[in-house]
Amino acid sequence: MTAVQTIGTGQPTEGAGPPGPSRGERISALAQQHGALVTLIVAVIAASLSFDTFLTTDNLGNMAVSSAFLAVVALGMTFVIITGGIDLSVGSLFALGGVLGAWGSRYGTLVALLLPLAVCGLIGLVNGLLIARARLAPFIVTLASLLAARGILLAITHEGATTYLVDDTSFFARLGQDKLLGVGVPVWITVVLFVLGAVVLRRTRFGQYVYAVGGNEDAAALMGAPVARTKTTVYALSGVCSGLAGALNAAWLVSGVTILGSGMELEAISAVVIGGTLLNGGFGFISGSLVGVLLLKVIQNVINQIGSLDSAYQQVVSGAFLAAVVIAQTWLGRRRRML
Amino acid sequence: MTDLALGRTFADRDRLLRLLQEYGVYAGVAVLLVANIAFTPHFLSAENFRTQAVQVAPVLIVALGMALAIGSEGVDLSVGSVMALSTSLVSLYLGYGVWIALITAVIGGIVVGVANGSLIAFIGVQPIVATLALMVAGRGVALVLLPQLKDIHDPGMASLGSGDVLGIPYLVLIAVALALVVAFTVRRTTFGRQLLAIGDSRPAAQLAGLPVRRVLILVYVCSGVLAAVAGVLASARLQASDPTSLGNLMELSAITAVVVGGTPLSGGRIRIGGTVAGAVLIQLLTATLIKHDLPPSWTQIAQAVVIVLAVYAARERGKR
């Protein structure tokens, strides 16, 4: 795109370097990167001024733990979206991970954690292989595994009739419910995973491949990046993340609830997009997705606090919010390209 | 000599795959029909065929709109929510008569379609994201209008849901009529040709001076209206408005019907006959598994496998 423009607008003078980013370009880049953070800060200030109940330890603690599960799912989704793909199966895998974790908890914590990770990781791997090796559209492959994973979940819960419970005193349940320094264990796990994710994305060769594949697949292949392997890994990673989030959620609720997770793919995609990651691929941040998740949860919390607004309005607001963010992002992106 | 033989096998394989993709769905329907007639007790009865046809009608109507969206290289994830919205509107306005209720529901579909289309055509948002936003918001609006299930007591709606002409239910007649209208639109109208040209290559269509934005908005309006009509018909069949669960996962069924029917996800081609057969195939598959006492969970897994196989077959063809 830029190359074409350079030829079209005449040759740059000999020896002159590429022009630095203009002021407008920098502002739109900043807005794209930190708009969500600014909105989050404004939302938190507004919420704490409007509701006395907002800034209480109980409310913040609950919000942090319930954000943790979505955040882990969004972490995997961020990798997928940076490669230019999409994973619609995360909600089903989240629910499946929860049921497998609750079922496995009777055989010990190790089984309760490893079983969901293995099964959901395997489904993610199949997604990845179909997308990367067989070159099927990510959206349709993950749609199929959304159906399949929910089918498997229904099959192991006897069509949703059986709810597996987690023993309240087991180590697995403690993993979901205990607090460390006043903060829930799932929150700590999420923080560690996000730091790990950021390091992998920014500081490793694999991370560079993820950006390269999303930026321009053909160019990445010519550069010698293992395109197919990178894509496969990313979907497997997303499956593992969803399974882990589901298992932790089951430990928190001490049961594998079968009806959870529908619509979660939308929440995760929204969080990632709100966090500044471009759906076209090649550009995005892990930290942005965390901000996106927190922003969604704060808005949900505010809607719940208003009380008179029921969950139906919550959906209206979420949808409108997603649309607004995508419009802003598309507009800013176009502005940057034009400048 | 070897080259020649090799070339022939490739050509044979290519032709076989093309045949499989074009007529595979009809073959699938035929196989399922024969297998059911042979092995399923009480399958071969007018009553059973009637039930199956009535159940498939709303899915087919939604799939027709989905075929238009996919043909334009897009997708419409909001169809299930539009059905929910339309069932809520029907309940609210039924007091003014069936026609007013129907018109209001259709207006709801038009509004969602214009919103989808504007996001996609004017702002350049990807169809999957734009319709995702409307999917979340649409179901929310439906639930704000009508928070829970409400029974419908109206003679007009009752006859729409269960009435028939010469033994053929109204629902089926309407679905068939709409399929014919959409097939005609795709094949014989300027709008249809422009839509396929845009699906083939939007930049090329733009350069050729086609009214890309207007056509795209119209595509999503069509999809919204068809989903709204499906919502009304489904409410009439159930004799109830259920905004919480009506249309849930409908986008998946509709996309499956379209893709299994041989319409490529890459746009530029639409197969309405295939879409009809695709919807019937899914319905038959579900019915077969249920009638043989296999739990509903198996249908979902089977449906997933069918989707992947269909897309895989399409891929081989597209690559050559």
Briefly summarize what is shown:
The complex is a heterodimer of chains A (339) and B (320). Chain A is an all-alpha fold. Chain A is 73% helix and 1% strand.
- Described by the principal axes of the CA atoms, the overall outline of chain B is globular
General shape of chain A: globular
Number of helical runs of chain A?
14
- Runs of chain B with pLDDT <50, length 5+? none
**Elements of chain B, N to C (H/E):** HHHHHEHEEHHHHEHHH
Distance, first to last CA of chain A: 12 Å
**DSSP strand count of chain B:** 4
What gyration radius of chain B follows from the Cα positions, in whole Å?
20 Å
Structure keywords:
A: 339 residues; two-stranded antiparallel ribbon; 2 strands; 73% helix; 1% strand; globular; B: 320 residues; mainly alpha; 78% helix
Walk me through this protein's architecture:
The complex is a heterodimer of chains A (339) and B (320). In chain A, strand 1 and strand 2 form a beta hairpin. The longest helix of chain A is centred in the N-terminal third of the chain and has 28 residues. In chain A, 73% of the residues lie in helices and 1% in strands. With 339 residues, chain A is mostly helical. Chain A contains 14 helices and 2 strands. A two-stranded antiparallel sheet of chain A has the order 1-2. In chain B, strands 1-4 form a two-stranded antiparallel sheet. Chain B has a two-stranded antiparallel sheet with strand order 2-3. In chain B, strand 2 and strand 3 form a beta hairpin. In chain B, helix 4 packs antiparallel against helix 10 and helix 6 packs across helix 10. The mean pLDDT of chain B is 87. At the A-B interface, helix 6, helix 12 and helix 14 of A face helix 5, helix 11 and helix 13 of B.
